[in-house]
Amino acid sequence: MKRLYVTLLLLGSSLSFEASAWIFIPGSLISAAIDATGVNDCPKNVITSLRDNDSLATQDQLGGVGKGWLIIHGGGKITQEQRNCFITLAGGLRSNFVAIPTAMGDNEIDMSELSSRYKKLLGVDNIAILHTRNKEDSNSDGFVNPIKNANGIFIDGGRQWRLVDAYLNTEVEKQIKAALNRGAVVMGSSAGASIQSSFLVRGMPGDPKNPAGDNTVMIFPGYTTGFGLLPNSAIDQHVDARGRGNDLRPVISAHPELLGVGIDQGAAIIVHQNKFYVVGGSVTIWSMAANSMLAPIKLNSGQGYVLPAYYGSSAPQTQRLSQQDAEIIALSPNKPQTSQAVNAIDISTLPQCQGGNFQQWNNCLGIHQYPNGNTYTGEYQHGMRMGNGFIDVANKGCEVSYNCIGSSIHAQYRGSFKNDRIEGYGTWVSDDGEKYIGEFLMNLPNGKGSRITPSGTFSGQFKDGKYIGL
Asked: Domain limits at 23?
C-alpha cells in the first residue's frame, strides 16, 4: 500500500500589516511594533521583560529554549490574548505558520475541514498543516520543509502518544527544535503541551480494546520521552478541570531532577530563556530539594517564574535547598535591577523609589536594609512597606516591628505587606526546613494556611501563629 501524508498550504488573502522583525527592536518602540502586527492584546510588559537579557545570555543560560519562545497551553479554549501572543511572537499575521493535528484520532481529522478549523482557532491564514502516522514520512524533506520556514508552530491536542509514534526522534522533531533556536514560537495545547516536556506523562498508547489509550496512567514504559523543548520538565494539562491537582507529585518524587509544571485548563505559560509568564488561569510548580518534596507553588495569571539555578543540572542538594522556591518574579522593566527584585516580587507597575531616605518613599518600588539586618525589596507607601514584597530575615525571631515569630534562624518571606507588617497572603520559608503558605495578620499566621515541617504538614486554620485545626 502506498503511504500517504498531508502537507496542506493555506494561502491568505490581502493583509495590510506586517512587522516580522519587531522582537529585535528596542523596548521603547515595542508598543508601536506590536500594534503594527495587527494584534495588540499580548501584554507588552511581558514580552519586553522576558527579552530583557537576550543580548547578554549565553547558550547555556537560554534554558534549552534558545532564541525562541514556547507557549504551553493547558487545553480547552485558547483566549484572544493567548492567540495574539502567538501571532505577535511569530512576527505578525503574514508570517509563516504550521499546525500539527496528529495528536487527534483518525475519526477527528477531517482534511476538508482543517483549513477552516485552524483559521478560526489561530486567527491566521498563511498556514501549512502537517499530518502523518508514519515516521518514514516524518523524515522526508517534502514533509518537513514547511517547518524550516515557519515563524510559528502549533501542536494541537489529543493523545500525546500519537505524537511520539509519528515524530519522536525524526526530522520533524529536529526541525521544530531548529525553528525554536532561530527565534520561532512553538505553541502546544493539551497533548501538544505535554509533548514539549523532556519527561512525558500520560503516554499510554492505544490498543484494539482501547484505541485512544489510557491517559490516567502517568508513567508508561516506552512512552516517557517528549520533545524536550522545555528541558528537564514534566508537563501536565487540564489540571483543574480533570481533578489532576496532585498527579505530578509521584512523578517528581521518582524523578527529582525534573521540574513539574501543572497547567490548568485554559491557562498558558510563555517561556523564554530561563523565565516564564502566566497568561490566563493558574499553573502549579512541583519540585524536590534535599530529597524532600517541596510544597507546590501556585502561580496565577499575571505572575512569572524564574527556573531554579539548579534546573537541568546536578547541583548539590545544599544549593537546591537554598533555592527551594525559585520564586515568583518581577517582570516590569521599571523594577530595580537586583537579584532580589528580579526573583521575588509579583508583577508591579510602580516606578523605582528615589533618594536614600526610605521614610519618604511613596508609591514606589524600593530596597532597604533595616538596622536588624533584614532586607526588604518591594512596594512602599508613605515610608511603609505596603503591597507586594520580599524580605530576607537575618534573624527568624524578629521582624522589623520586633514582633517575634520563631527562633533565631534565617528565613525569607514573600507576599503581602500592610502598614509595615506582614499581612495578607504569602509564603514564609526558613532554613530549618519549615514553610508556611497562607494568610498572615500582624506578622503571624492568621487564617487559612498550611505549615510544612520536618515532622509533618498541618493545613487548616491558624490563630496568632498557632494551628487550631480544620
From this structure: 6-326
